[in-house]
Amino acid sequence: MMQTRRTFFALATFALLAAPALAQDKSIVVASTTSTQDSGLFGHILPLFKQRTGIDVKVVSQGTGQALDTGRRGDADVVFVHARPQEERFVADGFGVKRNAVMYNDFVLIGPGSDPAGIRGSKDILAALKTIKDKGAVFISRGDKSGTHAAELNLWKLAGIDIAKDKGPWYREIGQGMGAALNTAAASDAYVLADRGTWLSFKNRGDLVIAVEGDNRLFNQYGIILVNPARHAHVKKDLGQAFIDWIISPEGQEAIADYRIGGEQLFFPNATVPGA
Amino acid sequence: MKCNQNGMETSSALELVLRGDPALLAIVRLSLAVSLSAVLFAALVGLPLGAALALTRFPGRGAAIVVLNALMGLPPVVVGLAVYLLLSRSGPLGELGLLFTPQAMVIAQAILIAPIVAALARQTLEDLWLEYRDELSAMGVGPARRIATLIWDGRFSLLTALLAGFGRAAAEVGAVIIVGGNIDGFTRVMTTAIALETSKGDLPLALGLGFVLIAIVVVVNALAWGARRAGERMAG
């Protein structure tokens, strides 16, 4: 019997190890997008915030649609996403307190070096998408209701293409994150819309290069919203607001601007720009 | 994997292991803690359930065994989703605030592997029961004592059932990534770290972490094997 008891205690110890510190730690849950996490931005700014305030930020990185849903269910204190119309609806529906602009970067159209659609170097994203469709060049869509997916659908619309109706075998929805979409594009010589941050930090590029960039319509704005404590009483209002206040403060904005990969700035703070 | 940009990404998994990278060690520790805890809870439910099925006869027993065996193939992502909906603030157990914590991961994995432990225990103990039935029946031992005796005497063989459960728990990603959220330094385990590195396109690091995970599972199995050998010797 001794032995079972010992085994039991050993296992029980592991069970206790799995329990997080019971102490009232200062932490918040932020539902955010894959781009902010995978690009390494959070790894850069969160230690600075923690140092300043002692608050731990637990980031759950999802697509924008899922992140907003996590906020709607009350499973996060703050959402940090990039799809302005959806963010505004989130606030209008009473799930969020107020949307604050934080920063922007841009989308880039990524494609194979062989450039089967012949669009490389163009600055007109709408013409490029039309060409991809006309030539039936393979295009990978996120298909996961993320901010990037929403932006892509909007671009098809602006290009006068009803993608739901016009898509053929060349248009492949994978329903996964940005990294998975880039992995798929690299493996199948396809075009894909990506945020520049994830692209710059992405390792498995294979033959992929930037095909189209620099079009104003590729602008990508990020916003941050406190989940409404009036709707979800357990929301850590003060800690969450402290994070938002910091990230839109000069100090937080500078931390964002300082983040670079290979000398290239990934995100451009614009919290103080009216209407951003 | 704190400071992904400067730490993890630029080094191979082997280097990280060799220099005892604290972020990697924390992930390994959490993987072991979560999956072994899940095995503990699955054993508390699964072993008595398997034993009870092994020694009782009732109408519909065959169907119960078929269902239990089928549940060994529970899809992790479905278990994860069900536990997520249960633990979400908008769900029935939202008050507990367990979503995106290691405890939520233990719950999901325990549900996932309890049928494995129960089904394998049922098979093992049914064979043992054939040997013991006459003796225990003659002694007039009650059902609870019978179950306890069988589990105790079959403990070395039952280890295999627990190891099968552990293997499944340590290897799955679908459930823990949904209920844990893959939060850096808090709910990130080996499998979710591998998924993350894959999505960042760092395939060599992802594969390296995969080998580390396999090595951990081998070590756990070797320890269990050693414990079993030692135990059998001591038990004569």
Number of helices of chain B: 10
Spans of chain B with pLDDT under 50 lasting ≥5 residues? 1-10
Total DSSP E strands of chain A: 12
Figure out the total of helices of chain A: 12
Average pLDDT, all residues of chain A: 91
Largest interface: A-B, 40 and 46 residues
User: Between the first and last Cα atoms of chain B, what is the distance in angstroms?
Assistant: 47 Å
- The CATH class of the largest domain in chain A, by name, is Alpha Beta
Task: Output the CATH topology of the largest domain in chain A.
Answer: D-Maltodextrin-Binding Protein, domain 2
Provide structural commentary.
The complex is a heterodimer of chains A (276) and B (236). By secondary structure, chain A is an alpha/beta fold. Chain A has helices spanning 2-18, 34-38, 41-53, 64-72, 84-92, 125-135, 147-158, 163-166, 178-188, 196-201, 237-247, 250-258, and strands at residues 27-33, 56-62, 78-81, 96-112, 139-141, 171-173, 191-195, 208-212, 219-227, 260-261, 264-265, 268-269. Chain A contains twelve helices and twelve strands. Chain A has two domains: 27-104 and 220-269, Periplasmic binding protein-like II (D-Maltodextrin-Binding Protein, domain 2, 3-Layer(aba) Sandwich); 106-218, Periplasmic binding protein-like II (D-Maltodextrin-Binding Protein, domain 2). With 236 residues, chain B is mostly helical. Chain B has a single domain, classed as MetI-like fold (Orthogonal Bundle). Helix content of chain B is 75%, strand content 0%. Chain B is built from ten helices and no strands. The chains are: A alpha/beta (276), B mainly alpha (236). The A-B interface holds A 3-4, 11-12, 14-15, 17-20, 29, 34, 38, 40, 42-44, 47, 58-61, 73-75, 177-180, 182-183, 186, 201-205, 232, 234, 261 and B 2-6, 9, 29-30, 32-34, 36-37, 39-41, 88-91, 94, 97, 99-103, 105-106, 152, 155, 181-184, 186-187, 196, 198-203, 231, 234.
